[in-house]
Structure formats: C-alpha cells, structure tokens
Amino acid sequence: MGKLSLLKLMIRDLPSARELVAASREYRRLVIYKLAEALGPEAKRPWHEWGDKEFAHHVYSVLVDFKAAEWKPDGSLELYKLQPPSITNPKVAEWATILDRVLPRLTDALEGRRKYFLDRELLIIYAKFLDNLGYNWWRELAIRLTVPEQDMKNPNLTFVDMGSGIGLSTLSILKFTSANVIAVDPYDDNLEMLRHYVAMSGYKDRVKTFKGYAENFRLDQPVDGAFMINLLHWSDVPSEVIKNARRNVKQGGRVYIFQGILEDKTLRLSFLVPYLLGAPRIGIRRKELYQWIKDAGLQVEQSETLAGELIRAVVP
Fold first, then answer.
1. Residue 130 lies in a domain
2. How far apart, in whole angstroms, are the C-alpha atoms of residue 268 and residue 131?
3. Which of 187, 152, 138 minimizes the C-alpha distance to 167?
4. How many other β-carbons are positioned within 10 Å of the β-carbon of residue 286?
5. What average pLDDT does range 44-51 have in this prediction?
6. How many of the other CB atoms lie within 10 Å of CB of 291?
7. Domain co-membership, 233 together with 286
8. Which of 129, 141, 169, 138 lies closest to 23, judged by CA?
C-alpha cells in the first residue's frame, strides 16, 4: 500500500520526482565521500578501540554498506579510493556546506566527546534542507496513509505536534488535515520561527504554541491526537515521549508515530548528521519502538514500513 501510494505521488509530479531521486543519489554519494574523507587514516583503528563503540561500529558499517570500504579482520577498515562526486543539484551543494562544518567533529564524536555539539544555527539549516530534499513528500504520505479520512476532514479536532522544531512537521499536519494544532517544542527560537512560517502559510488561526519537552509537557486538557515525526532519536528517553503522548491524548484518541529506523540501510546513513548535531541516539530500532508502544499501553491499529515505520495507535 505504501509503495503504491508513493508511486502514485511520483507519477502525479514526475519532474519533482525525478529531481528528488537524482538529488537523493547525489546526497548519498556526497555524504559517503565526505565521511570517508573525514575518517581518513583513523580507519586503520579498529572500531572497538574508540570511546563511543556503538557510533564507531555504525560509521564503519555505513562505509562498508555503501561500498566505500571493506572490513579487515581486526575490526578496522580498508578505505577505497573514491572520486569526488559530481554535484549538479544546488540544494545538495548547500548540504556540502553543512557537512564541511559538521564532519570535523567526527573523531571527537567517535571518542565519545559530544557534549558541546548542539548547534542551533546548523539545526535550523538542516531542518530546512530536509524539507527541500523531499522529506515533505514522506510526511505527506505518512499523514495520508495513517490518519483516518474522517479525522483529516474534521475541523473540530485538535492535534499536538510533539517536538515541532521550526514548524515543518506542523505545516504538514495543517496542510493535510482540517484540525487545530498545538506545536510543542522546548526552544523559544524554534517556536518563534514556527509562528512566522505558519502566519506566512495562512494557518495562523489554527495553531497554538506550547513551550515544553516531549517527555514531560502537560497540556491544559487532553487532545484528539498526538504526532511525533522523526522525534524519538532526539530524546534521551524515547519511551517517556510515547508515554507522555498517551497522557496528553484523550481516551479513544490516537498517537501517530512516523519514525526512521536503523534496519533501513539508507536511513542509517541519514542518522549520522543528527547524531553529530547533538541527537542523543544514533537511531531507533524497530523492535524497541514497538516495545515502547506496548509499554505505554497503546494499541496499534495500523502500521506500515515506508522509509521508516508509520504507526497509528489508539489510547484505550
């Protein structure tokens, strides 16, 4: 169902689909080239000798998965000689600037030194870049595939967007549903930019903002649904985010979780930059995600795998 919906969307807008596919390929080649360049001679060091062993194994595995290196018996890498990628898409060229600022932090991160990495300016650039590369297509599909049609059309419903950031996920919810939205984020500058985006897009009257962390915010009254869109790897305790979604959604309401997972090879590559920007976790695994949902007392009504897990769960 998900793949068919994706195909229909691509056929409907072939020029954009072609640009998206080409840009995604350029993006992957660029990240792999820059990653191998940043690791350089340090690839001779076995992954288990780094301070952050989990991240080191992740980085090494990504380079092997994307044919940029091969494993050696001691757990180190033999890097291949890569040609600099040809970048024709200006949006991908813009991404190169972000990589040049983030990847010098790689060896520090491999040693386990990431406390100072959170960079607000780069996070905002990163969020905008994801939107330009077609992440908005994925959000559109996720909403269409999981939100019941009657809920999409009901203007009397209120949804909460947990970890809204600068508002890209909030705008998607506003665009594809008729509901009111409460955008929750812990950072004032994110919420200020969100209000600006929403006003420019004509949705000002349907949005309220609420300052708080996804793990423990409390709304004045429960809402009809909660969204968390690729949020969980940005949390220190993802299980608490899901439990808190239940606490803020009324009985019979729904929790929507759209989350990239580590089992997807391409997404393992995508998790690298968020981790270097300060995300507490490299990524989320499918098994632990469904366990957290079960532990929160939610009942899964629908789930699909489409560049991550698309889940609709009900509050019993």
1. no
2. 19
3. 187
4. 16
5. 98
6. 12
7. yes
8. 129
Residues 6 or more apart whose CB falls under 8 angstroms from that of 295 comprise 239, 242, 243
Taking the C-alpha atoms of residue 304 and residue 302, their distance in angstroms, rounded to an integer, is 7
Q: Into how many domains does the chain fold?
A: 2
Structure tokens at 278: 């300060």
The three state secondary structure string of 115-176 is CCCCCHHHHHHHHHHHHHHHHHHHHHHHHHHHCCHHHHCCCCCEEEEECCCCCHHHHHHHHH
Same domain (yes/no): 166, 293: yes
Contact 46, 77 (CB under 8 A): no
Q: What domain range includes position 39?
A: 2-110
Tell me if residue 253 falls in helix, strand or coil: strand
State both tokens at 36. 């191998």
- Which pLDDT tens digit goes with each residue over 79-134? 999 999 988 887 778 778 778 888 988 999 999 987 655 566 666 666 665 655 55
How far, in Å, CA of 283 to CA of 268, rounded? 8
Does residue 66 share a domain with residue 209? no
Query: Has residue 131 been placed in a domain?
Result: no
> Residues with Cβ < 8 Å from 20, sequence gap 6 or more?
133, 134, 137
Amino acid at 309: E
Kindly report the pTM of this predicted structure: 0.87
